[in-house]
Amino acid sequence: MDIFGKCHEFTAAKVAMELGIYPYFIPMSENEGTEAVFQGRRLIMCGSNNYLGLTTHPKIRQAAIDAIHRFGTSCTGSRFLNGTLEIHHQLEHELADYVGKQAALIFSTGMQVNLGVISSVVGRGDFVILDKDDHASIVDGAKLSYGECKRFRHNDMADLERVLSKLPEEKGKLIAVDGLYSMGGDIAPLREIVPIGRKYGARLMVDDAHAMGVLGGGRGTSAHLNITDKVDLIMSTFSKSFASLGGFIAGDEPIIHYIKHHARSVIFSASIPPANTAAALAALHVMQEEPERIQRINAIGDKMRYEYQRLGFNIGPSVSPIIPILIGDDLRTILVWKELFDNGVFVNPVLTPAVPDGQQLLRTSYMATHTDQQLERVLEIFEQVGKKAALI
What we know:
- By secondary structure, this protein is an alpha/beta fold.
- The chain has 2 domains: 5-51 and 291-388, Aspartate Aminotransferase, domain 1 (Alpha-Beta Complex), CATH 3.90.1150; 56-289, Aspartate Aminotransferase, domain 2.
- Helix content is 42%, strand content 15%.
- The strands form 3 sheets. Strands 3-9-8-7-6-4-5 form a 7-stranded mixed beta sheet, sandwiched between helices. A 3-stranded mixed beta sheet has the order 1-2-11.
- Helix 9 (221-224) links the parallel strand 7 and strand 8.
């Protein structure tokens, strides 16, 4: 048995390429802001996580440039050894203050946050309890831990309590959920999760990768629901609203101190480069200085949800600027994606196994910098394509 046999047998992507309907790894010549350029053709970008439109903000660009001039392009070592700069500490202190926690720790990617935090906190004999719609990074962090993983139905509090009630009382337990779900655009019911978790002695970690900069005045889901003090750990990435690359975890100082000395993805990875650190710090300042961007992205989300529903599209339970268009079939989803792409709108097709069969969708998301004219054009194209595909 050749271990590479499966590689030669994998043909689905190549077939899609030959048919001209392959939707992934599309090489853009420009991909900043509200428009992208593919082979000289401009598309309205409705698939980015650049929620506040900060990747083109002059202050953030300049901060990254200045950091390169001062520090160079890399720290060439881990945070644990030679890769910590004063600017890393500054960002950690300001992030902790921003989200209302005692301390924070930054990682080189958001994926590494969840891998390192969960695998270091959840030890042998412990349990980690996940929502079935949790991001893959949370699932992989649970797999890397020496604990046992349990799952509950999406946002189903009765099922969460059922799962917790069957676990040994004396064992350690961590509930890990997304704050704002990246596919459905819906929010975790943290106000209900907190008392259930406390009843069974479980701690709570919230992944706010998509909520930070959007909900709670920009401070995330816990702030949005006014329960920051009841959430033990808050995580987010820099690759979305922070217009950079990296991520952080925030919580009580002893917990962050422990993670700093046990998370393998911190200890054995090169530290976040100076330019990315400076960009994230500048983005944090812009969020505080320009709250109108946060107001704008939420107003756009309200508008687009209303308009899609008015047209007859199924957008599921979304309450945010992440708005899925539910289609329910792999091939049909790809064909609708291609029709939108050809007509000038970039969205993301989400197929099985990323979502359960029957829940295939087009993921649309918006930026504070989208103009009203662009949004109207997007709705016009969606209406044309939706009617042609018999979705509406």
